Every structure is written in structure tokens, then in C-alpha cells.
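User: Sequence in, structure out. Go.
Assistant: Echoing your sequence, followed by the C-alpha cells.
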Amino acid sequence: MRSPMSELAKRVLVGVVAAPLAIAAVFAGGAALAALLAIVAALGAWEFYRIARASGHRPFGGAGIVLAGVAPLVVHAHFLNIGTLPPAALVIAALVVAAASIWRRGPTGAPLGAVAITLFGVLYVGVTLGFGYALRYQRFVVGFDGAPGIGEVSFAGSTFQLSLGGLLLLLPLLVTWASDIGGYFVGRALGRHKLIPSVSPGKTVEGSLGAMIFSVAVAWLVVQFLMRPVGQLGLTTTGTILFGVAVSAAAQVGDLFESLIKREAGVKDSSHLIPGHGGVLDRVDSLFFVLPVAYLLLDSMLVYAPR
């Protein structure tokens, strides 16, 4: 009888399959990226409302899942100029959920909590992931002081073409990954002082600082060896440090927030959708905070950096 696959083996197998697919979608952009973000948003929303119900709340899960999944698609449509979502439509969507509470919840069914949690789930999962698509198609991709949308990079005697928009989205993803890795290893090696033990007992102040140092280092490497050669875009030294620290801080807050809501619900994982990894929220919780922060920082700090 075969022994069950170890959790480490499952994590590695999922990573080997999922990581290339995600990176391919990042550089492909367009419908592929929008579809990936929509699927992740819908699954993440399902997990969020599942956690909310475990906490004793009664959100409108079906409506929230649909709205969260649609959010990245709306951003996609906006950038294709095939449709825009006026601000009034956002208000109407919120009011429809509120109106539903009249019949579906009534005065004794905690209608305020149901509406608030439903709409927050859409914002927390769907709208934030939409910033990933917006970042992929930042205004710099279309042209910034002559910077091309497609650039070339040489490696091992070969020349490869890379999408500048893909690099803009890859930057915060790699910095977030560096933050996770740095926090884990520095925390294990040097961690002595607990960061917020009531929320996440394993996290330490030393690990948090290590995460920021790793993030700054990776941000500098990506800017110097990918963004500048490929797209003639970069960050100043101060901007690189600020970006690395801010993204790491956002990633850590995102991870802590998900730990907080899971502790309230008394659950260990957001779900068991991903073998060896738990749920979607467990894997991308940091990005909900990172992507809007990265979008705002790059929009204001990215500079033309000719070779």
C-alpha cells in the first residue's frame, strides 16, 4: 500500500505547475491575465464568505462571489475601451445588495452585518486583484519618454523579448515572494521577539525586519537587471528602498489580516482547494494589500532610466 504523498511533496508539485502558469499569464496579459485574476477572485471570495459564516455571519455569498469575480473583468474591459463602469454602477451594485437584505434577512437577520461583509469581501478580494491588471497596463507601458512596451534582454548568449507591463506586475510579485522567504528564514534563525502573538504566534520582529531587507534587495535586483535594460524604466535608490519596505509591510499586514479573520472563525486554513497549501486566500492574502500599494507607488515614483 502506497504511503500518502507528503505535504512538502504536494507543495512542491503545486508550485512547479502553478508558478509557470501564473508567470505566463502575467506576461501574456489581456484575457489570460483577466481570466486568471477573475478565477482567483471568485475562489478567494468563496473562501472569505466561508470564513465569515464560520464566524457566525450570514453574508450574501453568491452575489459576493459573482461581483468579486467580475471586478477584474471590468478592469480588463476598461483597458480595452469596450466598456467602462461608471461610478454610479458601483453604488447601484451596493444598493442592490442592501435591498436584498430587506427580503432575505429582515430586521432579525443581522442585515447590516450581511451587507457590510458581502461588500467588503468584494472590495477585499475582487477589487484589489483588479489592481494587478491595472498595474500590467500602467500608463508607462503605452509609452513613457520613448520607453517601449516590449524590450529585449540578453542571457547566456541569447536575446529574449519581454513585456514591460509584465515586468511592472512581476516586480511586486517577486518582492512579495522575497518578503515571505526573508521573513521565514530570518525569523527562524534570529527571531526572539514576538511581533503580534495573539494573531500570529510564529511571526517575530526580527523576521519582519528580515523580510523588508530581502524585499529591498530583490527590488533593487529586478530594477537594475530587468527593468532598466528591458524597458529603460527604474526607481531611484531612495525609491527602491521605499518600494521594497512598503511592499513588504503591505504583504505582512495582508498575511496578518487573513490570520486575524481565520482566528476569529477558529479555522486553520481558508479551505483545502490547493493540496499542501490550504486555500487560495492562504496563498495570495498578501497580494490583496500589495497590488494597490504597488500601483500607487509605481505610478508616482517610476522614472525614465535610459541605458
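User: And one key feature?
Assistant: The mean pLDDT is 86.
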